[in-house]
Give the backbone structure.
Amino acid sequence: MHTRALIVLCFLVLCLSLSTVTAAKSPLIKGNVISNKSLKSVVASTSEVGPTFVNKMPNGGAAVAKAAMPDSVKLLIGAGGIYSAFLYYGSLQEDVFRYTAADGTQFKQAWLLQVLEALANVIVGGIGMQLTGATKGIPKKMFAVSGFTQVSAKAFTSLALANGLSFPVATLAKSGKMVPVMIGSLLLGGASYSVREYLQVAAIIAGTAIVSMGKKKGAGAPSSVMGVTFILLSLVMDGVTGGVQKKLKAETKKVGISPKPYDFMFWTNVFMCLTAIVISGGLGEVTSGLSYITSNPEIMSKIIKFALCSAAGQSFIFFTIANFDPLVCTTVTTTRKIFSVLLSIFLKGHQLSGQGWGGIALACGGILAEMEGKMNKAKKA
């Protein structure tokens, strides 16, 4: 059943790419998919795929898509695809690091996992880039830095799971990625935040800590210290990524280039893949990981589906932001995280005390408040 669902997702991704090509040929959209003069760049962040640059289609372009497909249908496809791909993605990621082979060993090769995931995204991004037309003259240096920081953030999240941190706690913690961004901005100067923004972040941090303490104690408590360390490192890399991507946006604007979504997807994942190959090779994860995967067909199947879901999810994000306001996508991805946490608790056997459920409510409240704050800012803009 899961395999069939994945095939449907891949088919929809192909349809999304083809619909982008159709839009690109419309006389109302000059140049490539979107007129460079009316281009608006935004950043869409997801805990699974990392921050990704995308381009918002202007109202004139939306009118073209509207004639071909009703907005309600497009929203159903976009939101449904994001939910389907990333809910399954999160479930598979948790399964990969909870899997125990017959000999009692577990999969620990987080960097090899990033090689396979990035490779799937490179393939899909490359196909999409060829269909929509590649942008020439893109500065690759900043993509290399962005690729390094993004893949590091993702690998550290996987290592947190591999070292005992539960999926619900890891997901909630990653929702607090604004923390390192705020700290960096404050230390570097020139940034100011409202009391509400501080309270939102505090709610997410406090809620996550309460959930972690609200779990029943188990034999894995010592390794969870390493898990917490890795998730903190992941958040730091998220903060660095935010700064790098702002610089990347400025670099492309300076040279008068407006890369399209699949340009960003392809080049970012190329450097993510190369970084992961070097690190996994240096750590000896390539041989040990491939040996483990080939010896355990069950986990091989999960990893393949995991990588495909990542690529499919990014394509649905691009589709949604190209046809709607970026906040629509933010709403979908934000609520998806909450559902991922709840599904993990109910389906994977996590047991929480009343205190733990209180932490869930507090953290989710902070996440939703942050989303509402972004929506209010957009209305005032």
Observations:
- The longest helix spans residues 221-254.
- The mean pLDDT is 78.
